[in-house]
Amino acid sequence: MQIGFIGTGSMGSIIIDALLTSRSLQPSQIIAANRTLAKVELLAERHPGLVVAANNDEVVRRAEIVVVCVKPFEYRQALEQFADALTAQHVLITITSPIPLEDLAQLVPCPVVRVVPSITNAALGGMVLCEFGPQATESLRKRIYQLFSALGQPVEVTFSLLRIASDISSCGPAFLSYLLQQMIEAAVVETGISREAATFFTTQMVLGFSKLLEKEIFTLPELEARVVVPAGITGQGLIPLKEHVPGLFHEVFKRTHQKFAEDIEEVKKYLDSMKQT
Ligand SMILES: NC(=O)C1=CN([C@@H]2O[C@H](COP(=O)(O)OP(=O)(O)OC[C@H]3O[C@@H](n4cnc5c(N)ncnc54)[C@H](OP(=O)(O)O)[C@@H]3O)[C@@H](O)[C@H]2O)C=CC1
Ligand SMILES: O=C(O)[C@@H]1CCC=N1
């Protein structure tokens, strides 16, 4: 079985790297195309045997599962380049959220699936969110779970939960990175600690924190309660956090959902126009 990739930018290359470093696939089982050829050639240098396709059409003709890793507004052009080569035997996977699967399914002759990765999958961790289109069978579900379990923990999400699940699982690493960088910056400015030392302490704290959660030693509220010693120091630090943070993530999620709704509206316009041609 050959798996095809259309788009080997940030996420496409992370998925390919993860499938190969986990040894779930051999490089020769992957064929990939990218608009800028140099990016896919670089991947082939990293993974000798990976097949570089001249174009998207070639990927679809040679692969059974096709993973499309382009951005939502690049779909129209990409689909026009490969849709004619799809048959009922293919499986088309999209990794982006604002492409409704029912609309995509109407444009292609094969089952469609959504697999939303996370940057955490680069370390073979975190979640892989899966949504299955109208024609997906139980055996297809099993195949997709099996393939993508190499990247992280696959979980099925309905379209109604997709945005918030993806906000937490896929956007979350950026949100958390931003907050941690703010913590580092404040430490540097307020105390004169070097950025290098503050970054080291922060990184080690997060690694230890992850282990606590992984080993299920504490829940988040238990962990907080154990650190906030009555009349102690952490409680003082929490005062400004409790003053400023509540409400913040409401705004974060309102904005991601708003942008998602706008993207879907735009995407639906061009998918509808493609249905008519
Ligand atoms: N970044 C993340 O953490 C996550 C991203 N996603 C989703 O992944 C998708 C891709 O994001 P990301 O990888 O960050 O974006 P990138 O811009 O890094 O990658 C997109 C790639 O697609 C290529 N491309 C565009 N059009 C075509 C085409 N017609 N044929 C072939 N290749 C094409 C681009 O080529 P070129 O080199 O010419 O630009 C580029 O390499 C997004 O929709 C995003 O929602 C999902 C979960 C997490
Ligand atoms: O910012 C984005 O659009 C993508 C979706 C999930 C993570 N990154």
From TrEMBL:
GO terms for biological process: L-proline biosynthetic process. Residues 2-97 form the Pyrroline-5-carboxylate reductase catalytic N-terminal domain. It catalyses: L-proline + NADP(+) = (S)-1-pyrroline-5-carboxylate + NADPH + 2 H(+); L-proline + NAD(+) = (S)-1-pyrroline-5-carboxylate + NADH + 2 H(+). It is found in: Cytoplasm. Residues 161-262 form the Pyrroline-5-carboxylate reductase dimerisation domain. GO terms for cellular component: cytoplasm. Keywords: Amino-acid biosynthesis, Cytoplasm, NADP, Oxidoreductase, Proline biosynthesis. GO terms for molecular function: pyrroline-5-carboxylate reductase activity. NADP(+) binds at residues 6-11. Its EC number is 1.5.1.2. InterPro entries: 6-PGluconate_DH-like_C_sf, NAD(P)-bd_dom_sf, P5C_Rdtase_cat_N, P5CR_dimer, Pyrroline-COOH_reductase. The keyword Amino-acid biosynthesis applies. The keyword Amino-acid biosynthesis applies. Gene3D superfamilies: NAD(P)-binding Rossmann-like Domain (3.40.50.720), ProC C-terminal domain-like (1.10.3730.10). Pathway: Amino-acid biosynthesis; L-proline biosynthesis; L-proline from L-glutamate 5-semialdehyde: step 1/1. NADPH binds at residue 56. Its main location: cytoplasm. It comes from the Bacteria. Belongs to the pyrroline-5-carboxylate reductase family. Catalyzes the reduction of 1-pyrroline-5-carboxylate (PCA) to L-proline. This is Pyrroline-5-carboxylate reductase. The gene is proC.
